[in-house]
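Lab notebook, bench 4. The sequencing result for the construct came back, and we need a structural model before the next group meeting so we can plan mutations. Quick request posted to the team channel:

Model the 3D structure of this chain.
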Amino acid sequence: MTSSWLPRALEESRARGFLGPGAIEPQILHAEGFALAWEQDTDAPPDSFLDLGSGGGLPGLVLLARWEKRGVLNDSMAKRIEYLREVLAWPGAPTGGEVVLGRAEEVARWPEFDGTFDLVTARSFGPPSATAECAARLLKIGGILVVSEPPTEGDASRWSVPGLALMGLSLQARVRHGANFQIIRKETPTPADYPRSIGTPAKRPLF
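Done. Here's the predicted structure in token form:
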């Protein structure tokens, strides 16, 4: 990957209205916090990751550029998927990037993605319960979900230990790498009931 590719790709995202008007550099630093949350326990990058709601390219493009491993960028909006596909075809783009159009509730049940990923990331994807439900089936046993959290320190009340356990997940550390990140680990297989049908995780949260 050339050093100019990532800023150029994110500038294009901002120009299309997929990112806010703020400077690109702080947004890259925030996205790198997802990588640091993974790297605090291992020197090796994940073999594969999936970024939920990646349409503006954060943190998915930053993680692809950092690790150059297989990364699936998922979004439900065709225009954002078109943008991601376009910038990943530019000269200097990292290899290993895939883009997938679809609702996460459906994508998680695709056989090729079921129990596939070491890491799932979520930045402004949705409420905690819906995020966990959409991510759980995508993860391998032992894989982790990293979620960008509000700035309030120590707000563990957003996550229900019994609710996560329903999906085979367990609450791990809340860490700070510039911003706050919650780490959730998949301990056991996700029951066949989850994720529920499109829209249900948000409309009828488990916690």
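The helical segments are 5-15, 24-39, 60-67, 78-88, 104-107, 128-136, 161-165, 200-203.
Will bring this to the meeting.
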